[in-house]
Amino acid sequence: MVAEDDEKQAELVRRYLEREGHAVRIVGDGLAVLDAVRHREPDLLVLDVMMPRADGLDVVRVLRSEDRELPVLMLTARSTEDDLLLGLDLGADDYMTKPYSPRELMARVRTLLRRTRRPATPEPVAEDPVLRVGELVVDPDRHEVSVGGRTVECTPGEFRILATLAAGPDRVFSRQRLLEELHGFDRYISARTVDVHVMNLRKKIERAPRRPERLLTVFGVGYKLTDPAKAAARRA
User: Fold this and answer.
1) Least CB-packed of 87, 121, 152, 184 within 10 Å?
2) pLDDT, tens digit, for every residue of 61-85?
3) What pTM did the predictor assign?
4) OmpR/PhoB-type domain: from which residue to which, for each copy (predicted)?
5) Angle value at C-alpha 165, between 160 and 166, nearest 5 degrees
């Protein structure tokens, strides 16, 4: 169940959850959450703090007072330590602040479902979440990137673009397609946002950023990620 009164955010979360095989129900206010949970308790509740009629903190307080043990992952624009600790003290199982990476949110959902042993139906097919393109390794669960064993620090936007490209090596992604992946956690987004992220990524993962071998431009179309060793072998 996704409790979020922002329709765009709710649809974004729904899309990612459904890709992983989860059945999703969206609820738009706190009192409706309580009614829905009492009627048919979900396997997991993704709960926004700022909602009409009853906020997320009140919802958690009531659910725990009723001895309901469903896992709760809270989402909030509040980022102070006091807010975070209050949510956890009331009984939330995990906490993410906005803006957030949808891929990281999915990793948190998988972790909570494993921990509580209440898998969604149908359960997603188990697979290695780590993405590898030659010496480039992207780990969505740990939010880590490395090249040839060297750790690379990425911003959330850079990481999302790299993870998207790494999930489809040699596939060309248009700028518009990559731009869509940034909605929900990049504060300032424009047509140039993707190009700036790509430029910064090349400085981090390429031996010669001005002559990229991994993150390539397909002129007039977009970008793709490739394995330089395989590309060299094909040319040979």
Assistant:
1) 121
2) 888 888 888 889 888 776 555 656 6
3) 0.49
4) 128-227
5) 95
Length in residues, the chain: 236
- Cα–Cα distance list, 132 to 122, 167, 186, 190, 204 (Å): 27, 8, 25, 29, 16
Q: Which of 176, 187, 159 is nearest to 223 (CA)?
A: 176
Q: How far apart are CA 23 and CA 133, in angstroms?
A: 31
Domains of the chain: 1-115 (3.40.50.2300), 129-232 (1.10.10.10)
What does the block give as tokens for 102?
């949808």
SS3 of residue 116 by DSSP: helix
